[in-house]
Design brief:
195 residues; mainly beta; eleven-stranded mixed beta sheet; ten-stranded parallel beta sheet; 21 strands; 52% strand; flat
C-alpha cells in the first residue's frame, strides 16, 4: 500500500505488510510476517512475530512489538519503543525518548544529532552486546550495569558510588535525563555520535 492520504490500518497473518507515504500514521499487525514501513506522517504501531520489522522516517511516535525477529528503525521524530527477543534491535536518529526491551539480541541505538534537548533512554538486553551513540554535548544521569561483561564509555562520566567493571553510575556532561542501560552476559558501550 502506497500514497495513503489518511491513516493506514493493516492486519494479516503469515503475510508481509509493506506501506509507504502514509500521511496520518499506521497500525500494522501480522502474525508471522515481515513489516516494512516508509515515510509515515504520524504515530506508528507495528506488531509481528518471527518476522523482521524495518521502518524508515516516522513523523510521530513509534512502537514496535516483535518476538523472534530483528527490528530496525531510522529517523523517528517522536519517541521510539521496541520490544523483541532472539533478534537484534537497531534504532538510529531518534529525536524523542528511547525504550528497548530485548532478550538474547544485540542492541544498537543512536540518538538524533539535532534533538532540541536530551530525552530519557532505557535499554535492556541479555547475552548480546549493547551500543549507544550520543552527541558529544549530551547530558545524562547514567545507570549502567551488566554481568559477565564490561562497560566502556567514549564520553566522560563523572562517577559516584562503588566503581566496578560491571556497573557504572554517574553523570555524562551536566546530567539531566535518564540513561538506564541493563545487560547480562554482554558488554555495554557508550559511544560518541559520529559527525
Amino acid at each position: 500500500m502506497h500514497e495513503i492520504k489518511g491513516k493506514g490500518t493493516f492486519n494479516t497473518s503469515f503475510g508481509a505488510i509493506e506501506a509507504g507515504d502514509v500521511s496520518k500514521g499506521v497500525r500494522a499487525t501480522t502474525g508471522n510476517g515481515r513489516i516494512n514501513l516508509r515515510d509515515v506522517g504520524g504515530d506508528t504501531y507495528a506488531k509481528t512475530s518471527f518476522g523482521a520489522v524495518d521502518i524508515q522516517r516516522v513523523n510521530g511516535n513509534l512502537t514496535i512489538e516483535n518476538s523472534n525477529g530483528p527490528v530496525t528503525a531510522n529517523t523517528v521524530k517522536g519517541d521510539a519503543s521496541a520490544k523483541t527477543s532472539f533478534g537484534s534491535v537497531t534504532l538510529e536518529d531518534i529525536i524523542g525518548s528511547i525504550t528497548v526491551d530485548n532478550q538474547n539480541g544485540a542492541v544498537s541505538v543512536s540518538a538524533a544529532r539535532t534533538a532540541p534537548s536530551c530525552k530519557n533512554i532505557s535499554l535492556k538486553t541479555s547475552f548480546s552486546p549493547m551500543q549507544i551513540r550520543l552527541p558529544s554535548d549530551a547530558g545524562y544521569d547514567l545507570s549502567a550495569r551488566t554481568s559477565f561483561g564490561h562497560i566502556t564509555s567514549e564520553l566522560p562520566v563523572t562517577a559516584s558510588g562503588i566503581l566496578g567493571g560491571d556497573s557504572l553510575n554517574g553523570k555524562i556532561g551536566a546530567g539531566g535525563c535518564t540513561l538506564s542501560l541493563t545487560n547480562s552476559n554482554g558488554n555495554i558501550e557508550i559511544m560518541k555520535l559520529g559527525k
